[in-house]
């Protein structure tokens, strides 16, 4: 089996190269190998590799910058998944694509299910939702995995930023009225490998394709997440100027950004767990493992 992985240097792409390597030949690419904003380059890549599976974690993820670079975000997040889907359909290949909590407006009281109507509030969210639609329209053999607050030992993320700032400052202020589930890149990669293995075992007929919410279990705010990270760092003996007690809560209104963030990023993972019979560990468990690697 040949597996094409995009975004090999990103948080999820890096872990996918590890997790998928036991299933077959992994052909991993990054922006230097193929510009996902270039439709012709994407088609040429897929036709050259001729994969059995395409796994696409690559995305334009600069959420605030996307407000000013709409065309670039659209090309990578919205158009590219559709082109990958078209080329995969020609080959009869499975496409695994990752999406985001930002497809929702964040106004719901409870956790979002796959049946809830998307209402993205930012260019990033809008282009990611358009990418979901583009893929689903051209290739029925797809898995769209919506996730949130990705954290990994490789690449940049919120946890690493908090560790850096806590080493530089004696006081931190972090938004406390946005809620979600930090989800480790390694978990997403391992789950993806399980799904690809099941697809190979069961074949296309009857495989439960579609859109699923996949996050770690539980929920927290950005502020409490920051405090957890710094408490773990303290317990590991890392020198910090700001410990968990030095993290002050901020409201979203007190920390304006170019792109609007969803206040509620909680995703209901019941459909995924019931369909595939998998347990999703707590966000604390995943973040602790990532921090152990970083330390």
From TrEMBL:
The enzyme's first-digit EC class, named in words, is oxidoreductase
Molecular function (GO) terms listed?
Answer: dTDP-4-dehydrorhamnose reductase activity
Keywords in UniProt for this one?
Answer: NADP, Oxidoreductase
Q: Which cofactor does it need?
A: Mg(2+)
What superkingdom does the record give?
Bacteria
Q: Does the keyword tRNA processing apply?
A: no
Cross-referenced NCBIfam families? PRK09987.1 (NF007440), rmlD (TIGR01214)
What is the designated name of this protein? Answer: dTDP-4-dehydrorhamnose reductase
The organism's taxonomic lineage, starting at the top: Bacteria, Pseudomonadati, Pseudomonadota, Betaproteobacteria, Burkholderiales
Gene for this chain:
rfbD
């Amino acid at each position: 089996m040949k597996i094409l992985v995009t975004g090999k240097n990103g948080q999820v792409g890096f872990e996918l190269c590890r997790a998928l390597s036991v299933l077959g030949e992994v052909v991993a690419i990054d922006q230097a190998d193929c510009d996902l904003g270039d439709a012709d380059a994407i088609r040429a890549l897929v036709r050259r590799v001729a994969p059995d599976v395409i796994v696409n974690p690559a995305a334009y993820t600069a959420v605030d910058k996307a407000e000013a670079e709409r065309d670039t975000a659209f090309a990578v997040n919205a158009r590219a998944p559709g082109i990958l889907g078209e080329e995969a359909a020609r080959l009869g290949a499975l496409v695994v694509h990752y999406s985001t909590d930002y497809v929702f407006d964040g106004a719901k009281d409870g956790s979002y299910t796959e049946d809830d109507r998307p209402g993205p509030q930012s260019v990033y969210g809008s282009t990611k939702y358009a990418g979901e639609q583009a893929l689903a329209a051209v290739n029925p053999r797809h898995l769209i995995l919506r996730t949130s607050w990705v954290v990994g030992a490789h690449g940049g993320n919120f946890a690493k930023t908090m560790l850096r700032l806590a080493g530089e400052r004696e006081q931190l202020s972090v938004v406390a009225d946005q809620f979600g589930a930090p989800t480790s890149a390694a978990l997403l990669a391992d789950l993806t490998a399980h799904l690809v293995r099941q697809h190979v075992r069961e074949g296309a007929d009857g495989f439960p394709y579609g859109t699923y919410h996949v996050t770690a279990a539980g929920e927290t705010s950005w502020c409490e997440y920051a405090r957890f990270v710094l408490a773990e760092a303290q317990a590991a003996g890392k020198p910090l100027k700001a410990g968990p007690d030095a993290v002050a809560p901020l409201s979203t209104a007190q920390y304006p950004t170019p792109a609007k963030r969803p206040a509620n990023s909680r995703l209901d993972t019941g459909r995924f767990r019931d369909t595939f019979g998998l347990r999703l560990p707590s966000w604390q468990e995943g973040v602790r493992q990532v921090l152990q690697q970083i330390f």
